């Protein structure tokens, strides 16, 4: 009986030892498992953090890309608007240029007509200033008796003056110079010299015109072209910007020839340049 109890006790002890060994083994395995799981969890955490960083970078890159796309779109829109504006401006400028050309052509035509009228008026005023007899008429820029016939002198003069009226100034100068060479002190010599000055004036060669007008004043001081030569010298000086010389000449015309058309024109010009 006592031996049986001992055997049971020993068997119980053995079972406890077995269970204890099993428990110890399980604990070790659990620890290892926990450690392995902990390592895997840490690795997963690190991988998750890395993924989050990558996603943040991707989001930033996407934001930058969206901003660049928006900027490019804005640039394209602005370029389109500028192109449309330029196209509109070009069309407007084209119309404006066409209108300006037409306006310029009209103004040029009006100027030419006005210039011709002024030239004709100046010629009439200057020619008429020396005619006082009732039986004279204007022929070719000079006065002569209606009863007299054309002479070689008059024909030569009229030929040059016809060229002048047609604005063939080189031809007119040549004709007047030939006339003066042949008839230096004839009735119309002062007029011939004056028209040489006028031919340069109408070509806007004002310095040369001044010199030719001076020849009228010096060579023919008693001729009826002196007031006109002084007046046109004043105008020529104005055109080259010498206002002081112009004023002196115009004042001389007013003072020395007060009752003439040239004096009236000089006064009007002096009023303009004061």
Account of the protein in words:
The structure is a single chain. The protein is mainly alpha-helical and 274 residues long. The protein has a domain at 112-273: Serine Threonine Protein Phosphatase 5, Tetratricopeptide repeat (Alpha Horseshoe). Helix content is 82%, strand content 3%. The protein is built from eight helices and two strands, in the order H-E-E-H-H-H-H-H-H-H. The protein has helices at residues 2-128, 152-165, 169-182, 189-202, 206-219, 226-239, 243-256, 261-273; strands spanning 136-139, 142-145. A two-stranded antiparallel ribbon has the order 1-2. Helix 6 (226-239) runs antiparallel to helix 7 (243-256) and helix 7 (243-256) runs antiparallel to helix 8 (261-273). The chain is rod-shaped. The model is unreliable at 124-148 (pLDDT under 50).
